[in-house]
Amino acid sequence: MKRIWFIASLFLSMSMYAQVNIIPQPVELKMPETAGQFVITAKTPIILEGAGLENSARFLNDYLKQIYGFTLPITKKAGTTPGIRLNFDRLNHPIPGAYNMEISAKGVYIGGDNATGTFYGVQTLLQLLPTAKASSLPVSYLTIKDHPRFQYRGLHLDVSRHFFPLSFVKKYIDYIALHKMNYFHWHLTDDQGWRIEIKKYPNLTKAGAWRNGTIIGRYPGTGNDSLRYGGFYTQKEVKEIVDYAAKRYITVVPEIEMPGHASAALTAYPHLGCTGGPYQVQQTWGVFNDVFCAGNDSVFTFLQNVLDEVMPLFPAKYVHIGGDECPKDSWKKCPKCHKRMADNKLKDEHELQSYFVQRMEKYINSKGKTIIGWDEILEGGLAPNAVVMSWRGEQGGIEAAKQNHDVIMTPTNFVYLDYSQSKQEDSVTIGNYVPVKKTYSYEPVPKELNADQSKHILGAQGNVWTEYMKTPKKVEYMIFPRLSALSEVLWSPAEKRNWDDFEKRLQEQFKRYTLWGTNYNKKLE
Fold it and tell me: Does some domain include residue 523?
């Protein structure tokens, strides 16, 4: 009889364990010998045992209200009713965000190394909840010890090619938070639209935020819709987004493109280009020859004034200045650029670009900020303190790390989420092919780096360029489920990553996407 009871108990324990489908995979998860469940109801209190954990309690309640239709009482004093206890634990992991969790008959305990860690513990708790609407939410007994692998775990959104309302930007930030990621790279300016209010230069949004049409279909297109298109975020709205992200322990990094991808700015202020115009906000995709004039001092005055308004809006230590895909054609024909090169003994236009980037870096550094640039900023000489975002494969990141520069890896062939997820894609994309399994296979630390050089790999980022994403639903379709795969790449220990196991857990995550009302790609290739 005892043997039968033991086998039944073991089977139940294994069955309960099978229900634990957490993404990203925790560092350590243990199930008790005797399986059980703690049930969360509308009467279960959230107990704030540590100071400053209101954000975690509020996020938990907002989620419960949105998904299950009820909230929990919040208190600072534990009573006799078992609850969800939020606190701090002394954890010694070098990257902030570690937490411990224990679920037992006594309730749920989450202790973070700081408020961020406690918040991440709450995200894990959310993944233990049922994937169907209910008024009673059972969660399995377990203990978890967890911490992030990388300090930079980012997701990017291009709002220049297509503009998205504030409500969706907030939803996007929630997606980042739910995956324990901590950076939102907000691509705000490009050839197809300038998306941030600059009070000193009102024409940037009056003229630069709108284009007179958009190509139809995949580039080069089958025509033009000839519809005026655009939009921008006021500084008040930007502050709202930054505050919203901060309450989810997410840092917002703005990108103001320079010296290339400048058509929208040049349309607003033509004197900033080499020819003086006329220019237009671009109606198609690609790379355009008209860029900021590197020989014109008023360009640097303009960009410094723009950044003087941008930087106070974003507490982040980073400012992304682009630096990518800058054709040199206009500089080669420009007398002012030739003079700049002669005066500064620059041998070619690549060194002129380096001069441009380093001049802007010096100004940004003087304001206490650090620049990030795409890997083209390596050409002609790397700015002294720059962080390199390696997108054209990994070589730029490898080179930068060997020069003792910090690096964020974002290679196209693994983490460009605008690439097709399926060989038979059922919607228009930019092309190429990055299935979720490819994203999951990515290792951000290149084998070419030694131990000291590897320390410069801050983490990685998924990029979402929106040429072919006109709606929030299309953005969701393109990021899911690859965002879940990337979150595990950036959070979980490399040795714990296992595609077969992840694929099983992903089936439950699909149910959660459905519960969220999220559009996603159901194909796994």
Answer: no
CATH code for the domain of 115 = 3.30.379.10
Token pair in block for residue 275: 């020819």
Q: Do the bridges between strand 142-146 and strand 28-30 make them parallel or antiparallel, or are there none, so unpaired?
A: antiparallel
Of the candidates 156, 179, 185, 261, the residue annotated as catalytic is 261
Residue-level pLDDT at 523 = 83
Cα–Cα distance between 445 and 457 in angstroms, integer? Answer: 6
Q: Total domain count for the chain? A: 2
Whole-angstrom Cα distance, residue 186 to residue 322?
12
Task: Read off φ and ψ for residue 215, nearest 5 degrees.
Answer: -60, 150
Q: Buried b / exposed e across 128-167, counting CB within 10 Å, b at 16+? A: bbbbeeeeebebbbbbbbbbbbbbbbbbbbbbbbbbbeee
**Choice among 325, 379, 448, 508 that is catalytic:** 325
The alpha carbon dihedral of 286, 292, 293, 295 has a sign of: negative
Q: What is the pLDDT of residues 81-119, one digit of tens each?
A: 899 999 999 998 999 999 999 999 999 999 999 999 999
| Catalytic residue flag (residue 190) | yes
Three-state SS for 519? coil
* 212 within a domain of the structure (yes/no): yes
Tokens of 420: 């097709």
The DSSP bridge pattern shows strands 152-158 and 137-140 to be: unpaired
Nearest to 190 by CA among 263, 136, 240: 263
What range does the domain containing 67 cover?
13-146
Active site residue 325: yes
Flag whether pLDDT at 484 surpasses 70. Answer: yes
Q: Is the N-terminal amide bond of 278 cis, ω within 30° of 0? A: yes
Question: In angstroms, what CA-CA distances link 291 with 7, 259, 329, 364?
Answer: 72, 6, 9, 20
Global confidence as pTM? 0.96
158 has catalytic annotation:
no
